[in-house]
Amino acid sequence: MPQVSLEQLVVGAVAGKLVSFPTDTVPALAALPECADLIYTAKQRSQDKPLILMAAIASDLWDFVQGTQAELSLWQQVADEYFPGALTLVLPASSRVPPSMNPLDPTTIGIRVPNSAIARKILTATTPLATTSANLSGQPALLRIPEITTQFPDVLTLSEVECASEKPGGQPSTVVKWTGRDWQVLRQGAVLFPY
Fold first, then answer.
1. If pLDDT is split at 50, 70 and 90, which confidence band does 52 have?
2. What is the pTM of this model?
3. 3-class secondary-structure state, position 4
4. Would 195 be classed as within a structural domain?
5. Which helix (H) or strand (E) holds 129?
6. What is the domain-level CATH number for residue 138?
7. pLDDT value, residue 167
8. Is residue 150 part of a domain?
9. Does residue 1 carry a pLDDT above 90?
10. Cα 72–116–183 angle (5° rounding)?
11. Mean pLDDT, the chain, integer
12. Nearest of 113, 123, 126, 163 to residue 143 by alpha carbon
């Protein structure tokens, strides 16, 4: 599949196709949440590795999580401090999250708002997408568009021209999980999380 324009990528994503675009960390493979199985198939990804729900703004994500009023208030404070940015919050999932986002534990969902203008422009047009790094499972994240188009020829990949100004950090997001009382760091990435 040739590299595509931003408009073509958005149309493809909304139609249920697998797409790839840069973020502030590593380039993403993305699909509508209900089409998340496309990501698992393309990456040859184990079902025990959940995907991240990425959105343009935090308010697009709150319907996908559920908690007490106090928890929601706390999570929103953390989001206000770290979003957009390289932090993923793993929170209790609401019934809006398709089970295919996290096949072996559909009770939680990772959410993130990337600090990338082009990613947020795409996510504004598509609504939240299921995402993960663009690579075969267990291999290093692909950072360059030609590598992505070679490894994933059927994926709609944003053209080099469209994302020339975007330079991924190359380090994945930090992932922290709400335990019901406090935060547990599941993966140390680009952000140091002090909670």
1. very high
2. 0.94
3. strand
4. no
5. strand 129-133
6. 3.90.870.10
7. 72
8. yes
9. no
10. 30
11. 94
12. 163
Structural domain count of the chain: 1
* Tokens 């698992």, residue located: 40
User: Rounded to whole angstroms, what are the CA distances from 166 to 7, 22, 50, 126, 146?
Assistant: 17, 7, 26, 19, 15
- List Cα–Cα distances, 177 to 34, 99, 108, in angstroms: 23, 18, 9
- Identity of residue 92: P
> CA of 17: how far to CAs of 64, 66, 72, 175, in Å?
21, 28, 32, 26
148 with 27: CB under 8 angstroms?
Answer: yes
Answer whether 111's CB lies under 8 Å from 89's CB: yes
- The residue type found at 190 is A
Cβ atoms of 163 and 145 within 8 Å: the answer is yes
State the residue for tokens 């699909």: 31
Dist CA 146 CA 90 (whole Å):
32
Residue whose pair of structure tokens reads 């493979």 in the numeric block: 29
User: In this structure, is residue 21 part of a structural domain?
Assistant: yes
- For residue 70, give its domain range: 6-187
Give domain status of residue 193, yes or no: no
pLDDT digits (tens, 9 = 90+) for 105-139: 999 999 999 999 999 999 999 999 999 999 999 99
Query: Is 131 within 8 Å of 30 (Cβ atoms)?
Result: yes
pLDDT tens per residue, range 135-155: 999 999 998 899 999 999 999
